[in-house]
Amino acid sequence: MDPFEDTLRRLRETFHAGHTRPAEFRAAQLRGLGRFLQDNKQLLHDALAQDLHKSAFESEVSEIAISQGEVTLALRNLRAWMKDEHVPKNLATQLDSAFIRKEPFGLVLIIAPWNYPLNLTLVPLVGALAAGNCVVLKPSEISRSIEKILAEELPRYLDQSSPNLGRIINQKHFQRLRALLGCGRVAIGGQSDESDRYIAPTVLVDVQETEPVMQEEIFGPILPIMNVRGLDEAIEFINRREKPLALYAFSNSSQVVKRILAQTSSGGFCGNDGFMHMTLASLPFGGVGASGIGQYHGKFSFDTFSHHRACLLRSPGMEKLNAIRYPPHSPRRLRMLLVAMEARGCSCTLL
Predict the structure, then answer these.
(1) Which H helix or E strand runs over 109?
(2) Residue 318 within a domain
(3) CB 221 within 8 Å of CB 202
(4) Residue 142 and residue 211 share a domain
(5) For residues 198 and 168, is the Cβ–Cβ distance under 8 A?
(6) pLDDT in tens, 209-234
(7) Is 266 part of a structural domain of the chain?
(8) How far apart are CA 271 and CA 181, in angstroms?
(9) Residue 167 CB: number of other CB atoms within 10 A?
(10) What range does the domain containing 180 cover?
(11) Which pLDDT tens digit goes with each residue over 267-303?
(12) Nearest-5° angle of CA 198, CA 201, CA 205?
């Protein structure tokens, strides 16, 4: 798929899902834009000097300060701007409610010129974000230094670089995970930032069993979804593969959850939750078969790293009781020995 077409599709899906409409989301984007201006002020001064030979004074006054002022103004007035604007009514509509509601357009394109390359990029961006839109931003290719900073640094401060989400451990695993995004079709997420080793939580649909994302442990924020015709097929799919470290079953029906528990095998199991079984020291955590050996947590960890040595100590004075075990054998002695060998609840035995 063309990368631009894929980006536009994801942005439209994000908007239609309603993510950009809440005031909290819009304010978070504006605060991120403000942090971008503060954190990269010197870089922006240097870039404006390279592109237009602007002095630090002129860059601050005509570019950075104006942009920052727009952010501050929008944050201060956002909720008021979003409110319905009631308008005067005539006699015929006195009992009605007449108002103007400010709705976001959806996906908007901002094309910036080169003469004020930061100001004329960010000021309209503030308005578009405050209004609840998704934005495709096109800086001027002529002011290359500013274009480079906007392309490389700005995305880290907006919806896709979240500070509350983890990052991929190293570049090798980042590349491995990003390649998996090509499996199936991205339904949610899909954004990535190589410089920050960030991949957004992503849901893949229309995934085939033979695709790479279904052939290995993912160790990343990617959830592939495969369609099956029913519960029988789902259980059969699980059982024909290696036993997993954990199996999570989600259903409004307790019978469905219990059936999956009864007819599958895994290291651990959660019904209508994930991970939480790991929080109990009273439950063992570990795999089975290909998913691992041994168990952790509390005494289970102690037992895993202990050799369970079988020991029995007997007094020499008890030797006479062993006579029934020695020749000459007889049916009576065999019956007595078998009775003595039966598992019993008592803490002692004759043999």
Answers:
(1) strand 107-111
(2) no
(3) yes
(4) no
(5) yes
(6) 999 999 988 999 999 999 999 999 99
(7) no
(8) 28
(9) 13
(10) 170-227
(11) 999 999 998 998 899 999 999 999 998 898 999 999 9
(12) 130
